[in-house]
Amino acid sequence: MQSRIFVRLIALAAIVLLPGAARPPADSDAAIGAADAMLARIGWRLATANAPLCDQLAPTPGWMIHTVDQYLAQPLPAGTRVDGFAAPVAIALVVPGGPAEAAGIAANDALVAVAGHDMPQPVAGPPSVRTRDAAQALIAAEPADRPLPVTLIHDGRREQRTIPASPGCRATFEVVPGSALTADSDGTVVRIGIGFFNRYSEAEVATVVAHELAHIMLHHRARLEAAGVKWGLLSELGRNGRLFRRTEEEADLLGLALMRNAGWDPAAAPRFWRKHGGEVDGGLFRSRTHPSSKARAAALEAALAGAPATGLWRPPVLSTSNTPLQ
User: Fold this and answer.
1) Contact by Cβ (8 Å): 245, 235
2) Predicted confidence band of residue 284 (pLDDT cuts 50, 70, 90)
3) N or C terminus of the chain: which is more exposed, having fewer CB within 10 Å?
4) Buried b / exposed e along 262-291 (16+ C-beta atoms within 10 A)
């Protein structure tokens, strides 16, 4: 949700309202909201369906949270209200059919506490995601396999709700602003450029999200750092390039299984790379830290030929998740 800082800052800063005031429309909000909703659906499906494959789990309620200090530089005077925030931490959206919705939680509910732990409070300063990240860490620290009790402000009333247990792979998902087709993960967060949501189908976007989630599950960031690789201009050269390409190939293979386990047709992945790979990786001008889109499609088709007919697909590459890269 880092994107909301940039896309919604001006709009939200303009709607510090008196109680009962209506929120003005924001056209740019509709685009980012649609992307957030799609990514939340995709991320929740992938994380929960593949929980048996993950060695790090967290409660996965099927929601997206945000905080008022993502948009406002200074704390608000007492009694002042920003629309959608009855408290500093709020529910931005819930995934249809997910556990949060089943518990009666809705967008714009304020999140006051989780399992008796109060949500963190914003600090003065420029717009920041620090409070949101702290809130997400507090939620992730709760047992993944138990119901999650929460305290909310819902329709102006303080209420207690219990979200059914919904363990998922420990990861968060964010939309990134701008026209570039960017996708990356840092070991805990999957970031997908809004351009993907504007141009591709849900299954095609799921191909990219599953690939980035696979990087997290395979601990690629930590393993690359432990291997001492160089980022930037040196990343394509020699051992650096070889190890980066290996992790990309591994993420493609695991991502294919994650898609299938979550109910998408995995054949959408090789089709995506054959049809759109050049748009995403730059074609002839792609970084050599990644295999060509043609090679990616061929490898994925070969993996599909050996996929199990039924049941959870646990590809062999998963066993390398804690093996040093050499």
Assistant:
1) no
2) low
3) C
4) bebebebbbbbbbebbbebbeeeeeeebbb
